[in-house]
Structure to design on (307 residues):
């Protein structure tokens, strides 16, 4: 149904009154969008848009075409709804295991987004370290895993991977808070709060410290990333998480997030996966597609800022 994509493009141009504005909202280039419209005008032998110095306006032919566009899009939405009814997606259960780092912000946001479209789909979420997550998958206790740095196993079928850096959660008054990146050596002698040893991030830190001959002063360790954040904000400690679990805008007041220099810690993969050879329940398959699109968008390079 690729033709629907262009119909949505034309609808957006009509709504915004601007090819450039529509292109920004649709994440396409204005020149490509304008070219598609010009090709369509040539095919129909009719001008659809009156191009002005500041935006565009629909011609009489454009008004007729946009009415057709919106009828087609409405029919497509109704058809999708009927297909969802036939496939039983009005109801369903998604069973997923996720790493601690995803449990506070990322996964709840994705569940909320998915349920706006499928409000009767429910979720059974297990928060587990990377090794336990693979075990839950292999024993059919969950349909999907979204875990950081899972162990290799032939039974795991990765659906999407997203490279992740470790970031430091730093009290705002710490000397390193003004730097763009930090080194592990910066925190020798600083009270540190670390996740438990079963987590992939903790194992990466321990390996890096051993290679560098460094030693942290571990003031606390916990299996709750929310508690670790609180120790940074309230007790002046430093902690570490993967970047998707420590978005700066989600941090409590008083916490600064800085990436750890790649010379100390290379990136590792966040993996969305299922059991190899297993056909997922429909709700699980649809949620996997939803997560895959989100992770793919997160992996895309940021667009350069306009001058």
């Amino acid at each position: 149904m690729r033709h629907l994509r262009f119909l949505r493009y034309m609808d957006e141009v009509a709504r915004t009154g601007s090819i450039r504005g529509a292109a920004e909202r649709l994440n396409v280039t204005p020149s490509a969008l304008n070219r598609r419209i010009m090709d369509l005008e040539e095919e129909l032998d009719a001008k659809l848009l009156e191009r002005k110095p500041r935006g565009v306006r629909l011609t009489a032919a454009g008004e007729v075409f946009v009415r057709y566009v919106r009828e087609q899009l409405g029919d497509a939405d109704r058809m999708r709804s009927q297909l969802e009814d036939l496939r039983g997606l009005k109801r369903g259960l998604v069973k997923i295991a996720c790493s601690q780092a995803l449990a506070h912000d990322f996964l709840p946001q994705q569940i909320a987004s998915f349920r706006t479209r499928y409000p009767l789909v429910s979720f059974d979420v297990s928060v587990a370290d990377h090794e336990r997550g693979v075990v839950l998958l292999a024993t059919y206790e969950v349909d999907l895993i979204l875990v950081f740095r899972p162990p290799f196993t032939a039974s795991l079928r990765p659906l999407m991977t997203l490279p992740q850096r470790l970031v430091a959660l730093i009290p705002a008054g710490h000397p390193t808070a003004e730097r763009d990146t930090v080194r592990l050596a910066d925190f020798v002698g600083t009270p540190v709060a670390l996740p438990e040893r079963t987590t992939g991030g903790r194992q990466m830190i321990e390996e890096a410290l051993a290679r560098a001959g460094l030693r942290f002063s571990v003031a606390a360790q916990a299996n709750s990333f929310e508690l670790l954040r609180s120790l940074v904000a309230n007790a002046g400690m430093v902690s570490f998480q993967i970047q998707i679990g420590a978005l700066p805008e989600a941090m409590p007041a008083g916490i600064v997030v800085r990436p750890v220099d790649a010379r100390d810690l290379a990136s590792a993969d966040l993996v969305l996966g299922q059991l190899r050879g297993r056909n997922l329940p429909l709700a699980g398959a649809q949620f996997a597609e939803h997560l895959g699109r989100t992770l793919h968008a997160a992996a895309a390079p940021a667009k350069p800022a306009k001058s």
The longest strand covers residues 156-164.
